[in-house]
What does this fold into?
Amino acid sequence: MADPFFTPVSGFDLPRFAGIASFMRLPHVPLDHARIDDVEIGLVGVPWDAGTTNRPGPRHAPRQLRDMSTMIRAQNDATGMRPFEARNCADLGDVGPNPADLDDSLARITAFYDRLKAQGIRPLTAGGDHLTTLPVLRALAKDGPLGMVLFDSHTDLFKSYFDGRMYTHGTPFRRAVEEGLLDPERVVMIGIRGTMYDSEDRDFADSTGIRVIPIGEFHDRGVEDVMDEARGIVGNAPTYVSYDIDFVDPAFAPGTGTPEVGGPNSWQAVQVVRGLEGVTIAGADLVEVSPPFDQSGGTAYLGASILFELLCVMA
It folds into this structure.
């Protein structure tokens, strides 16, 4: 039986446009709250985009995602999952970054997730740009490297940017492999596409055993076949799921910093997450929603819907 404290506010009790917005209308439970020990899955905002190299704005995403997520209801229409009854879920608030110091922000984010790991709380994160994932992995992979399923149009495997800058939203998974946070042979990257500077990132993937599934192969094979392979690659061991909203075609998700044409539609965007059923998910994130380029709010609503789908497979 669901704990009433962790039951989201219903639209039948308070209109969805009223009240203080939290992720999916869940209770706000800061780390010093009396009920923090009862939280099983914690939704966390990381309002930070210091890794952005193109159009800025993902620092504003957690606030907009919270607002759009008030439309989320209790039950998944396709799977029947009622995640808020299956697990105690809560909005844990935001990690406060240091907008003037990238290294300090990385340390702050890792320290926050260290506390979640120590308390046995599995995190579901709303970024933020994709560099956000690296400090999260630094906390979650302390016991050993994780597998990863990445939905993205870019590999984010570059060695560095510009004058040797090692930490951008194009480098997090190169650093994660180098630091032993990811087992490259249990990493699959789905939806990769777009023009290229060179093949450095793909060469690194090939040399380490990372499986890259380009968008053409994704469309040719279909969601079910691709996700069957993805589940086989990560196996039953703990796995991280990272979902960059630019995985989705910009016709459906224009509000992002580095859009690439030719991607999945919004239905396929949801289907791939459902294809994670059975994966041992240690944590997950949704990143790169950029509200300044999302005038209708449609990108953020798709992002909130993907967060719900992630929550359902985690639960």
